[in-house]
Amino acid sequence: MKPTLVIFIDALSYESRKIVLDQIKIFKEDIRLIPEIGYSSNQHWSIFAAKLPDELDYFTDYNLVCDASEITIGAYLKHNNILNTVLNYISNKIGKRTSNVPIGLKKIFVNKSIYPLLDKNNFFSLDSIWRSFELYRINRPEEMEMLGELCRQKMSEKSFIVINTLDHAGHMKIPFSNDYNDVLTRIMAKIKGVVDAFLLQYGESSNVIMLSDHGMTPVNSYIDLVLEKEFGPQCTDSYLYFLDATLCRIWTFSDQIKKQLYEYMNKKEYGRIISDEERRYYGIKKRLFGDIIFVLNPGCIFKPNYFGYGLKREVKGMHGYMPTEKTQHGLFMSNVTKEKKHESERNINVMSMIRNRLL
Ligand SMILES: [Zn+2]
Predict the structure, then answer these.
(1) How far is the centre of ligand 1, averaged over its atoms, from the C-alpha of 31 (Å)?
(2) What is the pTM for the complete model shown?
(3) Using an 8 Å Cβ cutoff, are 276 and 287 in contact?
(4) Which end of the chain has a smaller Cβ tally under 10 Å, C or N?
(5) What value, to the nearest 5°, has the Cα angle with vertex 347 and ends 344 and 208?
(6) CATH assignment of 4-50+127-218+323-358, given 1.10.1790.10, 3.40.640.10, 3.40.720.10, 3.40.50.970?
């Protein structure tokens, strides 16, 4: 393999490609990447290991951890109960880092996610191709400094850089607004320096690939879904549900309640149920992931949202919608022209694209 620089930018949307291409002129292809369903903890495995949730055994960060027969909930706090919010808030304030999952559901829904780009061990457990790469990553606030330093030091002949600053900016600023584009422009200016330094060190014919996992969609509507109002308290002989940012997953424990919940959710105009055929296609077939998986329309977000820690500002952008939404699409660019040009590709096929270009 020739010297290779891979730059991964979390949440760089295909919609923003002009800003990238204006600054970095070496790319000979820009391919639209169609994400899978779910969040980064699944997208990264699909891109860099070609594994979908059914194979990974987890879907989204929080997963139901046991069979219904083993669950004892007792009297627990309803998901939108103010006491729940206050107790979680106090726990965080006194330094006991606790998620926003309602107190009564914390034992049932556990964070099982593995972010493979966070550390070398997990990175090396992805596709074998990555074992020869040096991973450059740092906590988000220091990413720009890291890029500055990489320009000045000798990089590894096979370098893999991870940048999360744009994902954070996309949640906090309105995606594609001037403020947001300023952040992207600043990141790209730094990355241009790194690319130039790498090509200077290893020669103009080195491989450079830049890619992302998904895009970012502006948020304009908050959805408060309280199934208890219609179906009574959650319990293990009727139903359980979990609210992620854009997904509601429901587990049912009788055919009757399943039918009722299906019909109820099916009428909601702010989203739709993912069909069995789609669940097969996206590799989220396992019942463990929910009997009903409901995804919000682009721009909507659940509130409350169990994902995250502490009381946060309302987000301005989100990902995790249906992959058909254009603002959700990611981007793959390279200076390699080994393959016939194509317009778009699914995340699950990116690993074979990379192999075709590098090996
Ligand atoms: Zn994100």
Answers:
(1) 21
(2) 0.93
(3) no
(4) C
(5) 75
(6) 3.40.720.10
